[in-house]
Amino acid sequence: MDGAAPNAAAGSGATAETQPHLILIDGSGYIFRAFHALPPMTRPDGVPVNAVFGFSNMLGQFLTKHVGSHIAVVFDSSRKTFRSDFYPDYKAHRPEPPPELVPQFALIREATAAFGVAGVELDGFEADDLIAGYAKAFVETGGQVTVVSSDKDLMQLVRPGVQLLDPIKQKPIREPEVLEKFGVTPDKVVDVQALAGDSTDNVPGVPGIGIKTAAQLILEYGDLEGLLAAADKIKQPKRREALLANAELARISRRLVLLDENCPLPSPIDALLARAPEPTRLSGFLREQGFRSMLHRMGLDGDTAPESAPVSRPRQAFQLPGLQPEAAAPEPVSTEAAPFGPYETIADPAQLAGWVAKAQASGLLAIDTETDGLDALNANLVGISLAVAPGRACYIPLRHGPPPGTGDMLQEAPVAPPQMTQDQAVEALRPLLADPSVLKILHNAKFDLEVLGRAEHGALQLSPVDDTMLISYSMDAGRHGHGMDELSLRHLGHRPVSYDEVTGTGRARIPFTQVALDKATAYAAEDADVTLRLWQALRPKLLPQKSLALYEQVERRMVAVLREMELAGIKVDGAELARIGEDFTQRMATLEKQIHELAGKPFNVGSPKQLGEILFDEQKLPGGKRGKAGAWGTDAAVLEDLAARGHELPRQVINWRQLAKLKSTYVEGLAAQIDPRDRRVHTDFSMAITSTGRLSSTEPNLQNIPIRSEEGVRIRRAFVAEPGHVLLAADYSQIELRLLAHLADVPSLRDAFEKGEDIHSRTASDIFGLPRDQVDKEARRRAKTINFGIIYGMSAFGLAARLGISPGEARGIIDAYFSQYPGILEEMERLKSEARETGYVMTPFGRRLWIDGIQAKEQARRGNAERAAINAPFQGGAAEIIKRAMVRMPAALKAANLSARMLLQVHDELLFEVPQGEVTATAECVRSVMEGVAELRVPLKAEIGFGANWAEAH
């Protein structure tokens, strides 16, 4: 980077330290992001304040990191603007703001003033127009402007002296970023938008022309008017016709998207001078809203504001990459007790001893490991990070080599940086990590515990442990992701250094072991720092959100259970797997031959393009639809629809695809995952991925092996027990239906479960009015379909498709079902209502399951969300029942003096490896735990089998 600010106005003579800098914050973006990111909150008098809290927090965080000579938050004043006068449909389809947000608009403006920041708005103009106007006026005075927004409509403003700043990624947006987004330079963005339109704002554009095509046309013809003048000469007929027919719409669209940089400025530029907030006013505002945590964090909870309260740094350069020389280091404005870094690199035992003492004194220690891979059971430990308080973190490098390109030409090889040996670090840390008086805090603790617990890393044991990922997941399953970076942005307003930033990307990427220690420390120690801060932010919320018991009794205890299961793994018979693969290959070849005969010619069955041409171009089958690229769609839904209409070719292709997927995923995939050291596969259980609380597994994924198909049974035969042992499978019987009977409190279903009757035959008898001894297979099949379909919110059309009957007949069955079991319909309506009112539903054990899209305007999306709301408590409840059994199982087996090992959990099933002489006793112990883990209105039942392989155990 050169020494001059690249965005400085030419000829101004200003330097980065003296040039005026205006920061324009897009207020609307902050408001709506804050509102949707936070749960409902009210202040003591009942006024909703979640958006006020989020906005204040974001504004406060922003002011701690960035300093300008001038600053303003720009708001939209009203929905109607000058654009509505010449195009009434502009933004007309946008819904009114949520009722609970409306009273917060005024409070957010009060917050802006309380922080000492100017707020500007003007009737008849959008905030974007004001931003354009102020940007133009300020640059003309010789200043530079940063617009804090990622709104694509503002990218037309980028020019020398004006840039955008993405508020989430904290990255500047300049001409290269605009070029990447629109395919043109900023001065041509308006023309591209005029052609492409924008459905979000009801900007019509030209039908059939998207961003990519629009950019190509503008680059070829110069601008919109040049294109329209030459439209009749365009060779592509559809494109030519669209442009000629919609030329006036394109011109209107350009007027709609063009920002009015000559709009009136409601406040003079001098009124935007940065100034310090008046402490009494700021603290008074925060107290009035009940924001005690923010008061404390800003040091304003005493009678007077301390020196760390926000202060103004007029005419000081804004701290962003590329806007000032790297050597310039303006003093930051901070409302936080501690910044993120700088951090310390630990190179010798004496330094580490000091950090051990700090951790023992604080009673808290956040830990993170750096490895050379993502497989915890095989990756090498590269370094360890520690944090003892916010901003107080360090990194202990253990396996770092010299960065690329270093070293003296006279030396035979570059020299590695000074660092401790692994043995030195392990022995220094061992007493601390085992100290029960020091809480160890990790994010995704299972990974780090597996890495540190391996013998080659010193077999370190950590206790006690908290996991910030699981704390978040216990409260917010389904609401958002639970990765550290996402949680940091959401709860701390901080974007951590990314792995790509320190290692590079693509071919330029270097191993983390070759990253220079200063950069490695900044990245790795920050992870520990963020983990500690997340723990401080999230742990206190568990109790008020009624998630503490779930976290303490289930999720946290699952870490150790799953760790042992992953270490154990399950043995796979490679020879049997090879035989299965050969059988699948032969069957696929036979199917392929049949498919070619049905098609009348050979073709690549695995090619969707060729298949589509056979089905729809040559055989003229009905229902074909082309995708955007022009190829026929041949996904599973298309083929299943054609097969249901009696067409044999798509039916055989479905069979071929199923075999191909099983072969690649479970035959070849499993073979590649077998550990040569023990001939077992060690799946990785993911604890915080699903929206319902269920576990998932990867490498290999053992959750999706078909249960009832012949092929699924074949694959299960390859999972075997060690000599002298058997595999014991314990499967909850119809657990989701039992939860349905429990939650809906259906007397006849409860009676059937209590008596051990066949639940589907009982249902058939009830809804079809049949004597129980006259229920045939077809009636039972229909009852079974609707029993399980109801849990998934199946419609009459869905039931009709499953049963092969008319929608009217299916509706009659559903009506009879709800008439017989009215409690089920009431429970379904209650769940949908609960989701609409709160955004989540609850499992029987108190876990909140957030339902995405429940308030969506689009009927299809809202319908999917409603079905998810109905199903979530049953899937989530089943997940928690089996988790509760899993956390109790090790102690129960140990108390019974049994040596069985729990190997796998697949949905409602647990799989154990059991010595042959302990099968009966283990079965009794497992059944006792599984059936006694929860008290429902109906009994839980575990079905148990055993055999030499997994298939035999069913």
From TrEMBL:
Its EC number is 2.7.7.7. GO terms for biological process: DNA-templated DNA replication; double-strand break repair. GO terms for molecular function: 3'-5' exonuclease activity; 5'-3' exonuclease activity; DNA binding; DNA-directed DNA polymerase activity. It catalyses: DNA(n) + a 2'-deoxyribonucleoside 5'-triphosphate = DNA(n+1) + diphosphate. Transmembrane segments: none annotated. Keywords: DNA damage, DNA repair, DNA replication, DNA-binding, DNA-directed DNA polymerase, Exonuclease, Hydrolase, Nuclease, Nucleotidyltransferase, Transferase. Pfam families: 5_3_exonuc (PF01367), 5_3_exonuc_N (PF02739), DNA_pol_A (PF00476), DNA_pol_A_exo1 (PF01612). InterPro entries: 3'-5'_exonuclease_dom, 5-3_exonucl_a-hlix_arch_N, 5-3_exonuclease, 5-3_exonuclease_C_sf, DNA-dir_DNA_pol_A_CS, DNA-dir_DNA_pol_A_palm_dom, DNA/RNA_pol_sf, DNA_polI_H3TH. Single-chain monomer with multiple functions. Belongs to the DNA polymerase type-A family. This is DNA polymerase I. It comes from Teichococcus deserti.
